[in-house]
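Weekly sync, protein design subgroup
Attendees: M.S., D.O., the rotation student, P.L. (late)

Item 1: inverse folding check
M.S. brought a backbone from last month's batch and wanted to see whether the design step gives back something sensible before we order anything. D.O. pointed out we never logged the input encoding, so this time it goes straight into the notes. Structure tokens as presented (478 positions):
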């Protein structure tokens, strides 16, 4: 009976319908003849790729399970050899993001992340606006070593906001959310998007964008990403809390109790533990190696695995901690599948063909105009996506190919699309992992979320394209 019940649950309509959609879509593409100039194998792989991405969006099964099915289908259908089908697991960027996930577990396990946030609350928490900046700085400091923006926002920042909101009796259930909670939630969410855009290792799918760029012949290092994002990211970081404060500000503007709360929490935590000191040292080591790795011929993945090894040797992390980090292993699996498919689509000639075909339609424009149109279409199409990963998987490589074909400077094109792959998360309450977590608290109504998100999206585009262009000229990207 138990097995029967489990089977019935697994085949519920809520899961069965999306699964049927995925199968029908993949089958339909499979039997449509490929366009002129496209190899049959490339067209078959595209059908599997599209079905896999739709599976990520519809989620009839977890993403890792959908990815495994996609990998199996490439081999069963004879589209790829099993060696090529499994080649994604040998990609070094996959293990970079996996190692970063494991290191972020140490930040949470030791309490280092909460300690940093409480110290910033103590320093900047006298006023509500200062408190929002303090929480934002905590996110910024944690971002390089925490690729899960959901873990940063949902696991560290949001619990702190709820503690402050409780002190001031700001509760959606009581209709008092606007006292302080609504502002802090909205500000923290928007700042999380900016910190995710600033570092290659601050959001799980950022390395996927970098890897797809590499497949197109555009190499982006950790340091190059940071350098390009530094100025527009800093401006957005400073402007967004002020903007939210002005147009969705709190009723309570002074928050001395927040400092008292932070002081009490820090007293309860006591002095820094050896685990916190070791984790701090590992993070500093990683930043040094990621920024200066090219000088010492140490790539980002080697640096990340070195940091993980130190945490294991010192006992800060146990092997069981690593095995229990389900999000990391799930990411490794779906990342491997997508990187493999994208790489093979490029090798089989589909991506270059697609880029040349679409570029011929916008080729009449100067590259600056053509790229701006492409970037805006890429950005606002995120209204149709509930996953940054799915969006990047479906659209990043072809849009980059088009941008390169119309003459956009390669590194500039790759980075702008990568930055937009984070910035478009402001749009909806389902746009990325942290969005439903924050929205689910009930502090920000859906209508407000969408209105503020639309306006903030324009503000971010102006900052990153406007001020960013000046900075990118200075550092030689344009």
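Designed sequence read out in the meeting:
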């Amino acid at each position: 009976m138990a097995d029967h019940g489990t089977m019935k649950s697994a085949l519920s309509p809520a899961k069965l319908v999306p699964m049927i959609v995925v199968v029908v879509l993949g089958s339909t593409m499979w039997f449509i003849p490929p366009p002129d100039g496209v190899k049959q194998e490339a067209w078959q792989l595209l059908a599997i790729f599209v079905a896999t991405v739709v599976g990520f969006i519809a989620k009839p099964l977890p993403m890792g399970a959908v990815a495994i099915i996609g990998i199996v289908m490439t081999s069963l259908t004879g589209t790829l050899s099993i060696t090529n089908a499994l080649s994604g697991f040998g990609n070094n960027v996959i293990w970079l993001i996996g190692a970063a996930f494991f290191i972020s577990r140490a930040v949470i396990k030791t309490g280092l992340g909460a300690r940093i946030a409480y110290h910033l609350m103590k320093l900047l928490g006298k006023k509500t606006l200062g408190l929002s900046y303090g929480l934002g700085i905590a996110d910024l400091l944690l971002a390089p070593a925490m690729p899960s923006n959901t873990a940063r926002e949902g696991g560290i920042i949001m619990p702190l906001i709820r503690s402050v909101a409780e002190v001031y009796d700001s509760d959606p259930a009581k209709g008092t959310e606007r006292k302080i909670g609504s502002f802090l939630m909205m500000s923290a969410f928007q700042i999380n998007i900016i910190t995710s855009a600033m570092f290659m290792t601050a959001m799980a799918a950022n390395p996927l964008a970098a890897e797809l760029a590499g497949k197109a012949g555009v190499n982006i290092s950790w340091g190059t990403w940071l350098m390009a994002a530094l100025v527009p990211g800093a401006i957005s970081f400073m402007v967004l809390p002020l903007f939210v404060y002005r147009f969705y500000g709190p009723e309570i503007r002074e928050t001395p109790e927040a400092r008292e709360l932070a002081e009490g929490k820090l007293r309860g935590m006591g002095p820094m533990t050896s685990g916190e000191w070791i984790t701090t040292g590992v993070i500093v080591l990683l930043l040094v190696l990621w920024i200066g790795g090219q000088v010492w011929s140490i790539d980002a993945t080697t640096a990340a695995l070195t940091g993980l090894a130190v945490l294991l040797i010192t006992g800060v992390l146990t092997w069981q901690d690593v095995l229990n980090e389900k999000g990391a292993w799930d990411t490794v699996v779906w990342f491997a599948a997508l990187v493999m498919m994208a790489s093979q689509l490029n090798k089989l000639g589909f991506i270059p063909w697609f880029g040349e075909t679409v570029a011929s339609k916008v080729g009449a424009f100067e590259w600056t105009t053509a790229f701006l149109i492409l970037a805006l279409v890429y950005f606002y199409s995120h209204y149709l996506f509930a996953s940054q990963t799915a969006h990047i998987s479906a659209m990043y490589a072809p849009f980059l190919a088009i941008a390169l074909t119309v003459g956009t400077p390669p590194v500039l094109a790759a980075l702008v699309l990568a930055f937009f792959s984070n910035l478009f998360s402001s749009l909806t309450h389902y746009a990325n992992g942290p969005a439903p977590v924050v929205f689910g608290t009930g502090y920000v109504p859906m209508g407000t979320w969408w209105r503020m998100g639309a306006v903030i999206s324009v503000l971010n585009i102006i900052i990153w394209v406007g001020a960013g262009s000046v900075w990118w000229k200075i550092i030689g990207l344009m």
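Discussion: The chain has a mean pLDDT of 85. The chain has 23 helices and no strands.
Action: P.L. to compare against the previous round before Friday.
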